[in-house]
């Protein structure tokens, strides 16, 4: 049995705007999805969402990953078991992590010899198929790890301050939120396109600030980015409550991460403020997760279980 894992991510800048080619900065975080694969009589996919065969309703990402790998290998029967530390439909890139880890595990089991670039590319095609429109960000960062600038595919230094995530525990579908933004953009292109472009400009400004470890200025810009995410309609009362709970308790910055609607916000923690921020998020009704960014992308965990 082969086990591979891939990380989730948080966006410092640029979700949604990156779908339209603007720049984004995204960090892999130490929360991973593990995928175990072994040859079997038929195709079986097991996760907290259920046990199915190829099933584009219950397991769209994993089903498309199997079908994509069937173009390279003779995959007749395989059992795939998924375990994840990432809340599903939460803005932490659970869809990318499960897709990337599945492709890598099947790549090893069937000796396909894919490169990391191949894995990221195939996983991006799958996110596009399921979401309708998807940037390469989540799949790239989950494959490569680290702090990544997209679409430049440039690695930046790791962020040296603690990251606190606040989960509203409200499921949100990336496909739906990306669709809502597309609709708003086509209704008001002259208003929405400049907002998306401003978000991209913030990522470009922040690139230099990440190199300089200037988290105070990065934080100011992240808070502006939060305002613009609200402007394009991906905020919610629960997310705003957690954002202000974090900011009022020592966070340098706090904003939505990922698709929004529900799901998670992310805060950069100021000096010694990590537990105060986490407590404030919990008191405000959210679930706090203290984490760090990581250079580790997709990896083989074990060749025997
Ligand atoms: N542990 C998992 N097992 C099976 N499928 C998963 C798992 N995690 C995520 N997925 C798939 O990803 C979808 C959520 O992806 P998405 O809407 O992009 O949200 P996010 O990537 O922000 O968590 C789920 O509906 C499911 O299809
Ligand atoms: C909204 C978006 O920018 C990020 C979505 O991230 P997540 O699936 O919510 O983790 C979409 C994309 O980049 O494909
Ligand atoms: Mg996703």
From TrEMBL:
<keyword id="KW-0414">Isoprene biosynthesis</keyword>
<protein>
    <recommendedName>
        <fullName>Mevalonate kinase</fullName>
        <ecNumber>2.7.1.36</ecNumber>
    </recommendedName>
</protein>
<dbReference type="GO" id="GO:0005829">
    <property type="term" value="C:cytosol"/>
</dbReference>
<feature type="binding site">
    <location>
        <begin position="87"/>
        <end position="97"/>
    </location>
    <ligand>
        <name>ATP</name>
    </ligand>
</feature>
<feature type="domain" description="GHMP kinase N-terminal">
    <location>
        <begin position="61"/>
        <end position="146"/>
    </location>
</feature>
<dbReference type="Pfam" id="PF08544">
    <property type="entry name" value="GHMP_kinases_C"/>
</dbReference>
<dbReference type="GO" id="GO:0019287">
    <property type="term" value="P:isopentenyl diphosphate biosynthetic process, mevalonate pathway"/>
</dbReference>
<dbReference type="GO" id="GO:0004496">
    <property type="term" value="F:mevalonate kinase activity"/>
</dbReference>
<comment type="similarity">
    <text>Belongs to the GHMP kinase family. Mevalonate kinase subfamily.</text>
</comment>
<dbReference type="InterPro" id="IPR006203">
    <property type="entry name" value="GHMP_knse_ATP-bd_CS"/>
</dbReference>
<keyword id="KW-0963">Cytoplasm</keyword>
<dbReference type="InterPro" id="IPR022937">
    <property type="entry name" value="Mevalonate_kinase_arc"/>
</dbReference>
<keyword id="KW-0067">ATP-binding</keyword>
<comment type="function">
    <text>Catalyzes the phosphorylation of (R)-mevalonate (MVA) to (R)-mevalonate 5-phosphate (MVAP). Functions in the mevalonate (MVA) pathway leading to isopentenyl diphosphate (IPP), a key precursor for the biosynthesis of isoprenoid compounds such as archaeal membrane lipids.</text>
</comment>
<dbReference type="GO" id="GO:0000287">
    <property type="term" value="F:magnesium ion binding"/>
</dbReference>
<dbReference type="InterPro" id="IPR013750">
    <property type="entry name" value="GHMP_kinase_C_dom"/>
</dbReference>
<dbReference type="InterPro" id="IPR036554">
    <property type="entry name" value="GHMP_kinase_C_sf"/>
</dbReference>
<dbReference type="InterPro" id="IPR020568">
    <property type="entry name" value="Ribosomal_Su5_D2-typ_SF"/>
</dbReference>
<keyword id="KW-0460">Magnesium</keyword>
<dbReference type="Pfam" id="PF00288">
    <property type="entry name" value="GHMP_kinases_N"/>
</dbReference>
<dbReference type="GO" id="GO:0005524">
    <property type="term" value="F:ATP binding"/>
</dbReference>
<feature type="active site" description="Proton acceptor">
    <location>
        <position position="138"/>
    </location>
</feature>
<dbReference type="InterPro" id="IPR006204">
    <property type="entry name" value="GHMP_kinase_N_dom"/>
</dbReference>
<comment type="subunit">
    <text>Homodimer.</text>
</comment>
<dbReference type="InterPro" id="IPR014721">
    <property type="entry name" value="Ribsml_uS5_D2-typ_fold_subgr"/>
</dbReference>
<feature type="domain" description="GHMP kinase C-terminal">
    <location>
        <begin position="207"/>
        <end position="284"/>
    </location>
</feature>
<comment type="pathway">
    <text>Isoprenoid biosynthesis; isopentenyl diphosphate biosynthesis via mevalonate pathway; isopentenyl diphosphate from (R)-mevalonate: step 1/3.</text>
</comment>
<keyword id="KW-0444">Lipid biosynthesis</keyword>
<keyword id="KW-0443">Lipid metabolism</keyword>
<dbReference type="InterPro" id="IPR006205">
    <property type="entry name" value="Mev_gal_kin"/>
</dbReference>
<keyword id="KW-0418">Kinase</keyword>
<keyword id="KW-0547">Nucleotide-binding</keyword>
<keyword id="KW-0808">Transferase</keyword>
